[in-house]
Design a protein that fits this description.
Two copies of one chain form a homodimer. By secondary structure, chain A is α/β, with parallel strands linked by helices. Helix content of chain A is 28%, strand content 23%. Chain A has two domains: 205 residues, Medium-chain alcohol dehydrogenases, catalytic domain (Quinone Oxidoreductase, Chain A, domain 1, Alpha-Beta Complex); 138 residues, Rossmann fold (3-Layer(aba) Sandwich). The first copy, chain A, is globular and about 60 Å long. The N and C termini of chain A lie close together (10 Å). Chains A and B meet through helix 10 and strand 16 of A and helix 10 and strand 16 of B.
Chain lengths: 349, 349
């Protein structure tokens, strides 16, 4: 089959690889219907995270189950399924605590599972899913093709934006600012809106993204960054800042922006994969009683809550996709996102 | 009058200073009935925080109102009052948001207020309180003398322990570990118990403090620290750790202990004044979805909730005092706490 590999900085290749095979009795083979490129895929693409050896890449996909192991109970051949951006069993204590990203038996796409069998990357034609009954969520019937982009966001960005909002404690009446206008930041706006935030400020400089931000529920846009951005945001909320800031980028600058924009006693919900090595300034947090909560989003735990709203057209997170390409053009998908010609690219094998 | 000054490392002196005078119309003069030494007073005492010039010290006191400014409305001469460890107006946005330690018009004992008038330190005979109607809470009538130690803890340590528990999100059924067995750590145990925690582990090596911990509601004690302590705590909670760890010390080691002991998706509530300059390890927090929340405790906001329980003998946080001295022996009070001969010392002017 065809699958995507990263060879190094800005070197993405679609290559022939072995077809996956059932290996453990509890796994499944999924034929990928749609996949996408994640903002976090750009870290190795840009060389910020080094790639020492070529490896399979991609961790967001939906598809149709082609084969299941003998011990798979819930998932059936022919099911249309959503996979989260990681594998998990949904039965261990951490999964039951709502933190399936810390599954005691889980793993990552494009790497060996804990039994030593390979779990394919998501940007390919097929994926072996180690814990089929845990990781996969079947939709009721085959979804309308028009809904597939929104369904696909439940594999990562919509669930991740939701996690930012939950981690920040967004609830009815909260005031919120969102740092980052990528797909996750936009989904954090949508998540804040559905959780009842009364005012949502999008920090964005791009007209097209601002438009989606407003469509998703943003009430205001701030274009400034750094000290000017902090000052502007604070001024909008009585000089002290909003209740909650959602950090959806992962740089030292974006976290600094978030921590200094939120009001005393407020909370920073963060989901940006930390890059750059800057640690959190405890004295600044302590003096202003600013909490920081978040991490690698347990999106599998959120699919059951969010999927019905996607299927009912109540939320339309698939709007974050602004480019669709065949899998054969995966290298162009990366380039378009790297060069900010696209917010998020959907790939069709 | 007599008041305590710190001159430098291990140099505490009681000296004659000018009597405070009403200065702004909204202030009050309080005759101190009981004061105490805070764990955070030990940082300058030990020279960890340098003292460049002699200065007044002490920030926890209760007393009787001797004089009030013309514009004071709520507080009356003769009231027995509790002062939080800072001055605040209780009318600004931050105070109304529950974060009176970030009062837009507030200040600290032993320093000038924002109008340039001195607010005395708490370890003395009298204190000018800048915002009398904001900072001070009058008890209903004069409290039973036996209750004064517990009432005094509402000025700082009991409210601070409560803030740790609230910041960590302790609620009915939570599992909790507390790092630090000083007065604040012990109060955090008591606060967790009254908030409904189902299991509370005290990390303590001192038999006398362990005894108070059990009296306050601890269900278990762990004596190990560092890696051994982390391993022991995790093992007690299914190998993954408790829901919440309360950090009540303020060193890099204690925060590391807290972050690594809590379960994935858990929360560290912290109130230890950060010393040593170690920042928070964002990647460790991110990977395990561990949140960190807390800061300088807005104890003024908690007095109304906690005071009735103190007056009804439902909670007895005054048990943290294990030594009582006249104000004239304030230097010995510091030495006793520094040398761990006492957990917390009550001073009577």
């Amino acid at each position: 089959m065809l699958a995507t590999l990263i060879y190094g900085e800005r070197d993405i290749r679609l290559e022939e690889v072995p077809d996956p095979v059932l290996s453990t009795g509890i796994d499944a083979i999924v034929r990928v219907v749609a996949a996408c490129v994640c903002g976090s895929d750009l870290w190795p693409y840009r060389g910020v995270v080094p790639t020492n050896d070529p490896k399979r890449i991609g961790h967001e996909f939906v598809g149709i189950v082609e084969a299941i192991g003998d011990d798979v109970k819930k998932i059936k051949i022919g099911d249309f399924v959503i996979a989260p951006f990681y594998d998990c069993d949904m039965t261990c204590t951490n999964c039951e605590n709502g933190v399936s990203t810390s599954c005691l038996n889980g793993g990552w796409w494009g790497a060996d599972d804990r039994s030593g069998h390979f779990a394919d990357g998501g940007q390919g034609e097929r994926v072996r899913v180690p814990h089929a009954d845990g990781s996969l969520v079947a939709t009721p019937g085959q979804p309308d093709p028009a809904l597939i982009p929104s369904v696909l966001t439940l594999a990562d960005v919509m669930g991740t934006g939701h996690h930012a909002a939950l981690s920040g404690g967004v609830t009815h009446g909260s005031t919120v600012a969102v740092v980052g206008d990528g797909a996750v930041g936009l989904c954090a706006i949508l998540a804040s809106k559905r959780l009842g935030a009364s005012r949502i400020v999008a920090m964005s400089r791009h007209a097209d993204r601002q438009a989606i931000a407003f469509e998703f529920g943003a009430t205001d846009v701030v274009e400034e960054r750094g000290e000017a951005g902090i000052k502007h945001i604070r001024e909008m909320f009585g000089g002290i800042g909003p209740d909650i800031v959602l950090e959806c980028v992962g740089t030292a600058e974006s976290m600094d922006q978030a921590i200094k924009s939120v009001r005393p006693g407020g909370m920073v919900g963060y989901v940006g994969v930390p890059n750059g090595g800057a640690e959190l300034p405890i004295r600044t947090l302590f003096n202003r009683n600013v909490g920081v909560n978040g991490g690698v989003a347990p999106v599998r735990n959120y699919i059951h809550e969010l999927l019905p709203e996607v299927l009912d057209h109540r939320i339309n997170p698939g709007r974050v996709f602004d480019l669709e390409l065949p899998l054969t053009e995966v290298a162009e998908a990366y380039a378009a996102m790297d060069e900010r010609r696209a917010t998020k690219v959907l790939l069709r094998p």
